[in-house]
Design a protein that fits this description.
heterodimer, A: alpha/beta, Rossmann fold, two-stranded antiparallel ribbon, 7 helices, 13 strands, B: alpha+beta, Butyryl-Coa Dehydrogenase, subunit A, domain 1, Butyryl-CoA Dehydrogenase, subunit A, domain 2, Butyryl-CoA Dehydrogenase, subunit A, domain 3, 4-stranded mixed β-sheet, 4-stranded antiparallel β-sheet, 11 helices, 10 strands
Chain lengths: 256, 404
């Protein structure tokens, strides 16, 4: 069974992201594989271990997104493909889903596609579902465990309320939660392979599609409102007295 | 001149960093307090291939180069010196010694399980009465037919109680006119009759590691486990130190980085006299010094690693890197404690551990004094490195990465 894992390159989670003139900037912070997508890669590799086949990492982005793909290769993916086209510069998640759908079809023989639950930059969390819809596949969200039994996927989905076991035939798309387990580190063998890999770049012509329309725009982007923090020192003659005053203040402020 | 690390080297460094920061950093304070290495550390390093990072695939390793070994050491010691010590003894002092001096049969039989991390390796040179004065070694090896009978005790041995193999330097010829020429090297299996060992406690630092003693009493070592020729023990030991010192230099560089990072973070959050202490010039001076130490130490160890990759003898450059980086790491740690004030003096923060650990590096693998004598010796022309019968092989990616 061939598996695709769709990944995105995003600014490092430690980056200081600021909005200025409706544009987002993250300074000179490094770009990395979206942390949620690391779980998707982990899930894809687990599924490969259970069901065999190849894992192809796919990313839509600029030339630099090859770095994120190399991380996926170093973790153990069989191959990687970058989809890059100037016409995708302002693509929304629906447009990206069109591109991913075409790429998955072009890879051929893909029966399962893994996605992170969301990207830490745009935080839309819908690309997986939109891609599944366009492929006409089933979609299981927030998967925390994957098994492959009698040609079917059996997954666990975990929520605050409990765990659900879901079963579905292939082909299917999965979004993966972090309960799948810590993403494996790149192996040295994977690192050597990734460093040497020539990652093919497909443009829209190679995919045989027109530039998909983007409908969602971001007319305004602003920084979160600055929170005002007031510090008050509570004093008293004894710990008992301080605690009593603290309780009073907590009740007064309706914190509890 | 190209200062850029290759993609392979950068990714290897990143991988080791993630392991050290994610898995070891959260528990290191507890290990240090308890005085021992967390049980998962060695098996995990083996599983991730770190224990064979720069050894050829054909000998069970991961096929990376000597610079990657240095980068790994920098990352490990940025978390704790005892993590880096594992690579210093397992790879630097032992496995690279086998790569350089062992014959092909020995590499297959002895090096392979070490590079795979199935056997942990240590290095037995120092004795209670012989440290810098290597020629004073008392351990003996008596040839008897096709085996040797070994007796003696080694002290201050890292991983003494964890290791399966020890590269042991013993005296085979008590009557040699030059005592240096009476020494030979053996790969001793530590899991056999006549071997006793234990951990040493009460150390100033390096508490999350394992430092101990090993005693051999009439231990039989087959002739096939003698590394190199009889009488080559001193040269082998010194060659091993060229590699061990490289890992110490790279590690101390990581320790400087840890001091710098801790100091900038703390200085920007601690307020005094109405502003963050990072605005005070005397604090800035300490930070500037750490930046200077870090860059200089890093350049020195990378040069030594580059020379190793090229197959150029680097005893002088490695000694210089080790001397500078360890001295600088001790100064950096002392200044980091000073910036942290009273908090730095408590184990609530990491910097007091950095200071205690840093003092070790100034002593082991050639004290700073020994390195100063070496550097002066080279400058004055009193010291010249004669070619060795077996040189450390230059890094050849095809040979290293060929799967056989």
């Amino acid at each position: 069974m061939n598996i695709a894992v769709c990944v995105k390159q995003v600014p490092d989670s430690a980056a200081k992201v600021v909005a200025e003139d409706d544009r987002v900037s993250w300074g000179d912070a490094p770009l990395v594989l979206n942390p949620w997508d690391e779980y998707a890669v982990e899930a894809a590799l687990q599924l490969q271990e259970a069901a065999g086949g190849e894992v192809t990492a796919v990313s839509v982005g600029g030339e630099s997104a090859k770095e994120a793909l190399k991380t996926a290769l170093a973790m153990g993916c069989t191959q990687a493909i970058l989809v890059s086209d100037p016409a995708l510069a302002a693509a929304d998640s629906q447009a990206i889903a069109h591109v991913l759908c075409a790429a998955i079809q072009k890879i051929g023989g893909v029966e399962a596609a893994c996605f992170g639950r969301q990207a830490i930059d745009g935080d839309m969390g819908v690309t997986g579902a939109q891609t599944a819809h366009l492929l006409g596949w089933l979609m299981l969200g927030l998967v925390s465990k994957i098994e492959f039994k009698d040609g079917k996927l059996q997954v666990e989905r975990s929520f605050e309320e409990g765990i659900q076991i879901a079963e579905c035939p292939l082909p299917a798309a999965l979004s993966v939660s972090k309960d799948i387990g810590e993403p494996r580190y790149p192996s040295f063998m994977g690192i050597r392979k990734a460093a040497r890999a020539e990652i093919p770049t497909w443009d829209l012509a190679a995919l045989g599609i027109e530039a998909p329309a983007s409908v969602v725009r971001w007319p305004r982007i602003s920084n979160p409102p600055v929170r005002e923090i007031k510090t008050e020192m509570i004093e008293g003659g004894s710990p008992q007295e301080i605690a009593e005053k603290l309780v009073e203040r907590i009740l007064e402020e309706k914190v509890l | 001149m190209d200062f850029k690390l290759t993609e392979e080297q950068q990714m290897a460094q990143q991988m080791v960093r993630e392991f050290a920061q994610r898995e070891v950093a959260p528990v290191i304070k507890e290990s240090d307090r308890q005085g021992g290495m967390a049980a998962f550390v060695l098996p995990r390093m083996a599983e991730l291939g770190i224990l064979g990072i720069c050894l050829p695939l054909r000998y069970g390793g991961q096929g990376m180069d000597y610079i990657s070994l240095g980068l790994a050491c920098e990352e490990l010691e940025a978390v704790d010196s005892t993590l880096r010590v594992v690579l210093s003894v397992h790879i630097g002092l032992n496995s690279l010694g086998l790569l350089q001096w062992a014959n092909e049969e020995q590499k297959q039989r002895l090096l392979k399980p070490q590079a795979r991390g199935e056997k942990i390796a240590c290095f037995g040179l120092t004795e209670s009465g012989a440290g810098s004065d290597v020629a004073a070694i008392q351990s003996s090896a008596r040839c008897q037919g096709d085996e040797y009978i070994l007796n003696g005790e080694k002290m201050w041995i890292s991983l003494a109680t964890k290791a399966h193999h020890c590269l042991w330097i013993a005296r085979t010829d008590p009557s040699a006119a030059d005592p240096h020429e009476g020494l030979s090297a053996f790969l001793v299996d530590l899991e056999q009759k006549g071997v006793t060992r234990g951990d040493l406690h009460g150390k100033l630092g390096m508490r999350a590691g394992s430092t101990g003693w090993i005693a051999l009493q009439d231990v039989t070592v087959p002739l096939q486990n003698r590394i190199g020729e009889e009488g080559e023990g001193f040269k082998i030991a010194m060659a091993c130190l060229d590699n061990g010192r490289y890992t110490v230099a790279a590690g101390a560089t990581g320790l400087i980085r840890a001091c710098l990072e801790a100091s900038t973070t703390y200085a920007k959050s601690r307020r005094a006299f109405g502003r963050e202490i990072s605005w005070f010039q005397l604090v800035q001076q300490k930070i500037a010094n750490m930046v200077q130490f870090y860059d200089a130490a890093r350049l020195l160890y990378l040069r030594a690693g580059w020379l190793k990759n090229q197959g150029v003898r680097n005893t002088r450059e490695t000694s210089l890197a080790k001397w500078f980086a360890t001295d600088a790491s001790f100064q950096a740690a002392a200044e980091a404690v000073q910036i942290h004030g009273a908090y730095g003096y408590s184990d609530e923060y990491d910097v007091e551990r950095y200071l205690r650990n840093a003092k070790g590096g100034v002593i082991y693998e050639g004290t700073s004094e020994i390195h100063q004598l070496m550097q002066a010796g080279y400058a004055l022309g009193y010291r010249v490195d004669a070619p060795l019968r077996c040189e450390l092989p230059p890094y050849d990616s095809e040979f290293w990465q060929a799967e056989i």
